[in-house]
């Protein structure tokens, strides 16, 4: 049973609101996509012909579909603090570039050794391991160019960019996503871990970048310290919920819908939430985290509406 059917508080009750959100989501995702495509095209045009394969791999990973959840969270967070989408667009692009790089590296034979991503061959299957590795490296550095490359028009703009860059670097690095990936690999085939260890790992591997998407978007839009603190907490609740949903889909989802193989967590001996808590226990934790995230989003009242709808999409998705 879907989470939306389980929690009456977590429904989009008005059909008109749902249609408005879908229009917002579609237009916002297209805006991010277009901006990233323009940037990549300009860089490729100005680069040596010998790097053409690298840019093809970067484009394949960055522009090859996906839910665009993280950039949408950045834009919705900017709106929640009273800002405009254009202010948060560099953050939206940056978090998506980091997400794309992390997926390339996750799929490599030395990591999860996956053949499919979003229903297509993984980047290293198309371009080779060395080019895929370097494409990931290039996307990581491109993320910070997205953040800093728009020019600093005032001291305040510089302060906001610095704040966003610092949050993103910490979330993506050794104390955040990369550290979580190290723990994820270390936990493979090591027997059932303590649930707190798995929560910590998932919070780093998945939650920190989702929280950073919110914090960076709101920082560029001039959010206050208290607003950023609320959004960081929201992001960690939503990020853990997202990971639990991922674990559940890996166990029970339809591979044709998900675009990747089913049951890979068990095959790799992953310490997933369903493995430790059981499917029903994982569902309960998912619901509790989603409710906390929704409560935080509700504190922004009408301006947080798109944040609430994004959380609902996260926990009710089928892929």
Strands, helices and their partners?
Blueprint: H1 3-6, H2 15-46, H3 52-62, H4 69-80, H5 85-107, E1 116-117, E2 120-121, H6 123-127, H7 129-148, H8 155-172, H9 177-187, H10 195-220, H11 225-252, H12 255-258, H13 264-267, H14 273-298, H15 305-316
Antiparallel strand pairs: 1-2
Helix pairs in contact: 2-3, 2-5, 3-7, 4-5, 4-10, 4-15, 5-7, 5-10, 8-10, 9-10, 10-11, 11-14, 11-15, 14-15
The side-by-side strand order for the widest beta sheet comes to: 1-2
Q: Any idea what the CATH superfamily is called?
A: Farnesyl Diphosphate Synthase
Number of strands: 2
**Total count of helical runs of at least 4 residues:** 15
CATH class: Mainly Alpha
At CATH level 3, the topology is Farnesyl Diphosphate Synthase
Gap between N and C termini: 15 Å
Which spans have pLDDT < 50 for at least 5 consecutive residues? 1-10
Into which percent range does the helicity of residues fall?
Answer: over 70%
Structural class: mainly alpha
Radius of gyration: 19 Å
Q: Number of folding domains?
A: 1
Q: How much strand?
A: under 5%
- Could you spell the SSE succession in H and E letters? HHHHHEEHHHHHHHHHH
- CATH 2nd-level architecture: Orthogonal Bundle
Shape: globular
């Amino acid at each position: 049973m879907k989470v939306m059917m389980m929690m009456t508080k977590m429904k989009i009750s008005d059909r008109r609101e749902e249609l408005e959100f879908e229009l917002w989501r579609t237009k916002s995702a297209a805006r991010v996509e277009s901006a990233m495509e323009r940037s990549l095209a300009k860089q490729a045009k100005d680069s040596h012909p010998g790097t053409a394969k690298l840019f093809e791999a970067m484009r394949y990973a960055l522009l090859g579909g996906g839910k665009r959840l993280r950039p949408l969270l950045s834009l919705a967070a900017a709106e929640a603090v009273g800002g405009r989408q254009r202010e948060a667009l560099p953050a939206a692009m940056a978090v998506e570039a980091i997400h794309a790089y992390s997926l390339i590296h996750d799929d490599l034979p030395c990591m999860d050794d996956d053949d499919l991503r979003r229903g297509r061959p993984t980047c290293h299957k198309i371009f080779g391991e060395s080019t895929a590795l370097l494409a990931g490296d290039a996307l990581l550095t491109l993320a910070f160019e997205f953040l800093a490359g728009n020019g600093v028009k005032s001291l305040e703009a510089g302060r906001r960019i610095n704040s966003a860059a610092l949050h993103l670097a910490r979330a993506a690095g050794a104390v955040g996503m990369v550290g979580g990936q190290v723990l994820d690999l270390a936990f493979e085939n090591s027997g059932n871990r303590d649930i707190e260890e798995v929560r910590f790992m998932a919070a780093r591997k998945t939650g920190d970048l989702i929280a950073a998407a919110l914090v960076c978007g709101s920082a560029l839009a001039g959010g206050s310290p208290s607003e950023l603190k609320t959004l960081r907490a929201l992001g960690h609740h939503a990020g853990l919920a997202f990971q639990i949903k991922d674990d559940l889909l890996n166990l029970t989802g339809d591979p044709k819908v998900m675009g990747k193989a089913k049951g890979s967590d068990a095959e790799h001996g992953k310490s997933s939430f369903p493995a430790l808590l059981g499917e029903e226990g994982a569902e309960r934790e998912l619901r509790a985290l989603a409710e906390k995230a929704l409560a935080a989003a509700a504190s922004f009242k009408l301006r947080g509406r798109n944040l609430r709808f994004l959380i609902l999409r996260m926990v009710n998705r089928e892929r």
